[in-house]
Specification:
The chain has about 600 residues and is an alpha+beta fold. Among the domains are: about 1-65, no CATH class; about 175-360, HUPs (Rossmann fold); about 425-585, no CATH class. It contains 16 helices and 23 strands. The protein has helices spanning about 70-80, 120-150, 155-175, 190-200, 220-230, 250-255, 265-280, 340-350, 355-360, 375-385, 385-400, 405-410, 455-460, 515-530, 535-540, 575-580; strands at about 1-5, 10, 30-35, 40-45, 60-65, 70, 95, 100-105, 105-110, 180-185, 210-215, 240, 295-300, 315, 330, 435, 445-450, 465-470, 475-480, 485-495, 500-505, 545-550, 550-555. It has a 6-stranded mixed β-sheet. It has a 6-stranded antiparallel β-sheet with strand order 16-17-21-20-19-18, covered by helices on one side. A 4-stranded antiparallel β-sheet has the order 6-7-8-9. Helix 1 crosses helix 2 (about 120-150) and helix 3 (about 155-175) packs across helix 4 (about 190-200). The radius of gyration is 28 Å and the shape is globular. The two termini are about 50 Å apart. The mean pLDDT is about 90.
Length: about 600
């Protein structure tokens, strides 16, 4: 245990010095020994100025918060970037900390702004020409530095590894989760690779299901790594899931490319398809009150040091906002690890990993993610030239369609990543809820529809209660409250001069009329403009919602528990992700 107020380690749950609660996280920093020429991980404490190298006993100094190894493939590219002779640094100990490199203990900074301007053609030729020679002559020096790095940090490695293994065992025995199915979320990145190894060792079980969400935007090396993993773990089931109903590039044409604050692709191509698979695994029975049987405990590789938003996550999350799939409880064995810890674990245990890291990628996910930095895009122009050019052309076409003054600059500077809303996007015209108050009845509104009223429309009101046929002469459908059995909604097809298709919805026997009208509006919006982003499927922990090209948006009345989560703006802003992504300035 660690007290972050006193910066001391303790065996107690409460610090004996200051009286504050302690945490499993042990604050640590990366120092550097010039004599041994490798990083040293050490606990953060008030006596850091007296730290010495455990091997040579020479004084060490603080360098960085975090660090990762630079493999020979990336080091060769670094040599070309800084203009030094190729292979001249083959004997050097090279590491990367954020945007900076550490070469034999000395910092080297490359301005990230330069990456957007670099013509990669010469680099591509040089890298290909020197690839074989570089591997032949460089890896013996790299592995020498690596061996020393592992040896010098052995005590720290054993400590944080044992903490993670113990944590996995404790969560599995916890009465809250003991009867749940378990799985490992496996992306093919280094973090999920480490989690996979940790969990299977801790539970002595190689047969734990791994779930790989294929977004269709994975690095080519990721697909290669998944196959390598299968061969090395023949008893480990890996389930690949993906959205076969949608095309990423087609959706970019329809609603615009994703951006940092508008990552519709995550729901549509990752969490949505995973939700569908989980619904098959954890089928909900109407009379099953044991929620453990209806949920799954997922071990995944989230780390609090990855970003400011993830630093606010909990190590185990169930019902909070960080959980994207309501059916699962998620927990991270490596929650407190830094990059340096992950790499120390993987390299010391000889765990195979994604080749993209050798090329210099800091993170491995979707190769065209708007969260990727300019350096990542630069690498993709070298190693994925055809895909990168296709993506650039797609972004330029979008920039022209929304009348950006200089489309090439908008794309190449990364300005497209910061876009917000649906300005200039044709689909945005359908996202606004259009209605008028009924002039003849109180508590009634007439809503404009974008298509003829249908059974799909009436089905949208299942979350509010029991949907039944009303007055046949009016083609009325009524909704009864599922507990009181009182009529709360009257839905009647309506003819109005201004609207081609419309419906009159009246609220009855409800105290909070405005709240119900707001939620009704959400369902009208979904009917008008559902893009099958699958977010609603992920939010429903009972598996009641399914969205397909053939049936559209369908809610299974036998599975729906009327919890109203799918119309709760706390979990689904304005009841529909598309409202957030396609809202225009005049609507704000």
């Amino acid at each position: 245990m660690w007290c972050k107020f006193c910066n001391i380690e303790t065996e107690e749950l409460v610090c004996n010095t200051c009286g504050n609660p302690t945490t499993n996280e042990v604050e640590h920093l990366v120092y550097y020994c010039k004599d041994c020429n490798v990083p040293i991980i050490s606990k953060q404490n008030s006596d850091s100025k007296f730290l010495v190298c455990p091997i040579c006993q020479k004084k060490i100094k603080f360098k960085v918060e975090d660090i990762r190894p630079v493999f020979p493939e990336e080091r060769l590219l670094l040599e070309l970037l800084i203009g030094t002779k190729p292979l001249s640094l083959k004997k050097s100990s090279v590491w990367k900390a954020g945007h900076r490199y550490l070469v034999d203990g000395e910092l080297l900074i490359i301005d990230s702004k330069n990456f957007e301007k670099i013509d990669v053609s010469e680099y591509t030729i040089e890298l290909a020409k020197l690839e074989k020679e570089n591997k032949k002559v460089s890896y013996k020096y790299f592995e020498k530095h690596l061996s020393k790095f592992i040896k010098i940090n052995e005590l720290w490695l054993n400590q944080f590894t044992q903490e993670a293994i113990n944590w996995v065992k404790e969560t599995r025995e916890n009465p809250k989760y003991k009867n749940m199915n378990i799985m490992i979320s496996f992306s093919g990145g280094k973090d999920s690779t480490a989690v996979s190894d940790i969990v299977m060792k801790a539970l002595s079980n190689p047969r734990i299901m791994h779930m790989f969400g294929d977004t269709t935007l994975e690095f080519p090396t990721t697909y290669e790594y998944i196959e390598i993993y299968r061969k090395e773990h023949p008893y480990t089931p890996i389930r690949t899931v993906k959205n076969n109903d949608q095309s990423f590039l087609d959706m970019c044409d329809e609603i615009g490319p994703p951006a940092r604050l508008m990552r519709w692709c995550c729901s549509m191509f990752k969490t949505g398809p995973i939700t569908r698979k989980l619904n098959q695994i954890c089928r909900v029975h109407e009379d099953d009150e044991d929620t453990q049987h209806n949920h799954i405990f997922t071990y995944y590789g989230i780390r609090k040091n990855e970003s400011a938003s993830r630093s606010k996550y909990n190590r185990i999350s169930g019902s909070d906002d960080s959980v994207k799939i309501r059916k699962q409880i998620v927990g991270s064995p490596i929650f407190f690890w830094k990059d340096v810890d992950v790499w120390l674990y993987i390299l010391s245990n000889n765990v195979a990993f994604n080749y993209a890291y050798r090329l210099g990628y800091d993170r491995v996910g979707c190769w065209c993610c708007p969260n990727n930095n300019q350096r990542s895009q630069f690498l993709s122009r070298i190693y994925m030239p055809d895909q990168s050019q296709q993506w650039r052309d797609k972004l330029i076409d979008f920039a022209k369609s929304v009348e950006k003054p200089d489309p090439e600059v908008y794309v190449d500077t990364g300005a497209w990543k910061a876009r917000q809303g649906g300005n200039g996007v044709e689909a945005s015209s359908k996202i606004k809820i259009k209605y008028s108050n009924c002039t003849t009845e109180d508590n009634a509104k007439v809503y404009q529809l974008e298509k003829p009223i249908s059974e799909e429309f009436y089905n949208m009101f299942t979350p509010f209660g029991i949907v039944k046929e009303g007055r046949k002469s009016l083609k009325e459908v009524v909704v009864y409250h599922n507990v009181t059995n009182m009529q709360i909604l009257s839905i009647i097809p309506f003819s109005q001069k201004e609207y081609l298709y419309s419906v009159k919805i009246k609220i009855l026997n409800v105290e909070k009329i405005d709240d119900l009208f707001r939620m009704v509006g959400y369902q009208v919006r979904k009917f008008n403009n559902c893009k099958r982003c699958l977010k609603c499927e992920s939010i429903c922990e009972f598996g009641a919602i399914k969205i397909t090209p053939s049936k559209g948006y369908h809610i299974d009345k036998n599975k729906c528990r009327h919890c109203l989560m799918c119309v709760n703006s706390n979990y689904l802003p304005e009841g529909c992700l598309m409202s957030k992504y396609l809202r225009t300035k005049d609507e704000n």
